[in-house]
Fold this sequence. Notes:
Elements: H1 3-7, H2 39-43, H3 59-62, E1 66-71, H4 76-88, E2 93-97, H5 100-103, H6 127-133, E3 143-147, H7 152-166, E4 176-178, H8 188-197, H9 200-217, E5 221-222, E6 224-227, H10 228-233, H11 238-258, E7 270-276, H12 280-300, E8 314-318, H13 330-345, E9 349-351, H14 364-379, H15 394-416, H16 420-425, H17 428-446, H18 474-490, H19 494-509, H20 514-523, H21 528-538
Parallel strand pairs: 1-2, 1-9, 2-3, 3-4, 4-5, 6-7, 7-8, 8-9
Helix pairs in contact: 4-6, 7-20, 11-12, 11-15, 12-13, 12-15, 13-14, 19-20, 19-21
Amino acid sequence: MSAAESAQVRDHEEQIFETASGLTIEEIYDGNSIENLDYERDLNAPGEFPFTRGPYEGMYRTRIWTRRFQVGFGSPKESNERIKYLHQNGANGFVITIDLPTSYGFDSDDPIAAGEVGVTGVAISTLEDMENLYDGFGPDSVSYALSIRPPVSSVTLAMLACVAEDKGVPLNTVIGTQQNDPFYQMSGGPLQTTTQFFPIQGTLRLCLDNIEFISKNMPRLNWMVTNGYNLRETGVNAIEDGAFTLAHAFDIYRMAKARGLDINKFPLRGSFFLSCSVDFFEEIAKFRAMRRLYARTMRDELGATEENACRMRFSVQTAGNTLTTQQVHVNIVRSTVESLAAVFGGAQSIHLCSYDEGHGLPTEESSRVALRTQQVLAYETGVTKTIDPLAGSYYVENLTDQLETAITNKIREVDELGGMAKAIQDGWLEEQINAARYKNQRDIDSGRKPLVGVNCYTIPPEEDTPVKVHKIQADEWGVKRSEYLKQYRADRDSQKWNDAMSKIDSGWKNNENMVPIIMNALRNKATMGEIHEAMRQAQDWSFR
Length: 544
């Protein structure tokens, strides 16, 4: 160790003995630490209420977690090629990210899309685009999680249903996920941008339309992934993460119940997308506490009587906000620790971030390292051979109890404000996030929170390893997509298109479920942007 590095070492006396969210850590834990633990009430067997030890009886002894990877750039054909590459290397689930224009309901040739086509994800404007994304795969065999919110998710759901029908796949066998979270981005610029382009009440209505359509027609498809991941990326801690995410889900569940949907049925395909940060034991305890709290709330407050409706399922992505742009290969260690915590926490699928994501889209090489890391964990380490191996740990059980209590108290605070939807619209959540961001940055700047390679154990920039960055072809993609859409529109039957667009207007005003109506429009070659514009006009909403 160099003298410079040695000077950066924190003395034992300087350590802060608390979790990342501020819970005190005792020097040692013993039987007195869990004296209030009741096995049947708080633990029980895996797959049994309250699911603390896992949502399924066999867990990883029966089925290894889905190894999910984030894919999406350029055109659907290019993204499909990356999916095929990863699938050949052992990946069996994919998070499909969407570019910014698509995320807000605009076609690739809209002037507002200039410079952004295919940059942050794949561009999807037509039914044909979705068909290209599924080239070589059936929607009943490979799981895609479309990382997208309503109102756009209503269009992508309709596209998926059309693709399944055209491939001869029964809708009730389609697998995968429509994220469909109306507050996918819960705060700041993204939320403000969403509400600028589409009214929030319309967004909530389409979210419920999707839940209703999927519950009745596509029982193997996840109808909403409550997105705690993006929330955690803003800088909130584990307690706030758990509380805000669950409070949001419960708010949507209450709306679905008010529409007349069965609380014992529709939650069966609700799921969660969560972040796993680097505080190893706190993250494990967070997942266990959230699962237990979810079960109790579903039964005791929302009225679910079927045990299956109380089972919380979630996918995990290792934290993006713990990745550094300095000494990027250290990120492999961070992501490995985080994914191992997700395993001990009982995740159903895991996406391990590539080490170079702080610099841009992952390359094929970094994606392969991320995949191999998961495969080593799954097949070499032995962590899958017994269920909930940390159960009974004095520390883990005590920490699980503390987190359940703290998350419950925070949820009550949200409920007193009228629920998460109101708390978001009133700006309360934004205030909470800004306070968390400030504290997090202050702790890094002061050194209270060690960040290897950033505020300790740094090296001169010239000694750092160069990073190969995935090349972006935004201008080229934009031109090609514009040419494609021009020809696509020229080839359609204008009368059939007009009739389909009229049905969007009347369907919206008559409060019909919009998914079948959108399917009809897509089959008559309406584009994503045109469908969104028609729904905006039906609400007398204009942003331009």
